[in-house]
Amino acid sequence: MALDVHVGLDVPPVVIDPVPAEPMKTVAALLHDSNPIHFDVEAVKALGMGDRVVNQGPNNMAYVVNMLADWAGGPGRVRGLRVRFLGNVFAGDRLTARGTVTGVREEGGERFADLDVWLERAEDDRVLDGTAVVALG
Amino acid sequence: MAIAVEELEALVGKPFPGGRYTIEPYRHWLMQDAVGGPATREGEASTMEAYYGALAGMGLSVDELFTLVGATADDGPMFGEAGIELRRPLRIGESYEVSGGITGVVRKEGRKAGVFDIVTFRLELVGEDGAVAAVSTNSFIFPRRD
């Protein structure tokens, strides 16, 4: 079913509460990411970064991608994403992924929505923001 | 001594070794499970696979990439920006040829941050149909503290 989409429409937000620590170990292994701040609290403490492990940046991107895929009707609908990383996310944080439609267009016989997207700890504390393109079907 | 900016600029346009990346069903399941997405082993893949595939298939580890630009993980490199462009949906089980390299180097100096370099690299994933399926463009920020 085609989505009823218009400029200004807010995508249903997705809350991640709390950001879990255990999956960071899986991601570190799968991405061959040897940085211990993602799995060893002692390494985080030694760097003076607090006492909670730090989420991988791609995980924060994935929360936004998952929100868009869920809204648009499937993983293949998310055709573009461009984001800036604005701050570290720690295990135990409460995050909300959000998006707002900024444009609707047709290209090559397909309908697309352009969106502003972001991930926030609070309204004035964004940890990631950017833009996305979603195929509407 | 920080690597000379001329040395960095000389890397622009030189291709990475490149490689092949397959969206393994079990791996897709595990990664999606880790980030709260739909954990599936068949069908369309998460758009994030373009990002994972670019890094896994570029032919360099992240540490080797850091070495190439005169840095180590101890320097505290940070993600700058990340971009994914899908020309078509990616599929679980499909293989992609990955190629690309560094496309830009910018040296900046901030009052608080000191000297740092922004290094951008772009990688293409070519599917089994021979066409570009996805493009991943990423930048890292490298503090140059000495």
Secondary structure blueprint with pairings:
The complex is a heterodimer of chains A (137) and B (146).
Chain A: E1 14-16, H1 22-30, H2 41-46, H3 57-72, E2 78-85, E3 95-107, E4 110-122, E5 125-135
Antiparallel strand pairs in A: 1-3, 2-5, 3-4, 4-5
Chain B: H1 5-9, E1 19-22, H2 25-34, H3 48-57, H4 62-68, E2 78-86, E3 95-110, E4 114-126, E5 132-144
Features:
heterodimer; A: 137 residues; alpha+beta; Thiol Ester Dehydrase, Chain A; five-stranded antiparallel sheet; elongated; B: 146 residues; 4 helices; 22% helix
Summary, kept brief:
Chain A is α+β, with helices and mostly antiparallel strands and 137 residues long. Chain A is 23% helix and 35% strand. Chain B contains four helices and five strands.
Describe this structure in words.
The complex is a heterodimer of chains A (137) and B (146). With 137 residues, chain A is an alpha+beta fold. Chain A has a domain at 14-19 and 61-135: Thiol Ester Dehydrase, Chain A (Roll), CATH 3.10.129.10. Chain A contains 3 helices and 5 strands. Chain A has helices at residues 22-30, 41-46, 57-72, and strands at residues 14-16, 78-85, 95-107, 110-122, 125-135. The longest helix of chain A has 16 residues, at 57-72. Chain A starts with 13 loop residues before the first strand and ends with a strand. Chain B is α+β, with helices and mostly antiparallel strands and 146 residues long. Chain B is built from 4 helices and 5 strands, in the order H-E-H-H-H-E-E-E-E. Chain B has a 5-stranded antiparallel sheet. In chain B, strand 4 and strand 5 form a beta hairpin. The chains are: A alpha+beta (137), B alpha+beta (146). At the A-B interface, helix 1, helix 3 and strand 2 of A face helix 2, helix 3 and strand 2 of B.
Shape, per Cα inertia axes of chain A: elongated
Report the strand count of chain A.
5
Number of beta strands of chain B? 5
Q: Spans of chain A of 5+ residues with little confidence (pLDDT < 50)? A: none
- The secondary structure category of chain B is alpha+beta
Please identify the top-level CATH class of chain B: Alpha Beta
pLDDT averaged over residues of chain B = 94
User: So, CATH architecture of the domain at 14-19 and 61-135 in chain A?
Assistant: Roll
Order of helices and strands of chain B: HEHHHEEEE
Task: Please report the two chains with the greatest interface, counting residues with C-beta closer than 8 angstroms to the partner's C-beta.
Answer: A-B, 33 and 35 residues
Rounded Rg of chain A: 17 Å
In CATH terms, the superfamily of chain B is: Hotdog Thioesterase
**CATH top-level class of the domain at 14-19 and 61-135 in chain A:** Alpha Beta
| Oligomerization category of the chains in this entry | heterodimer
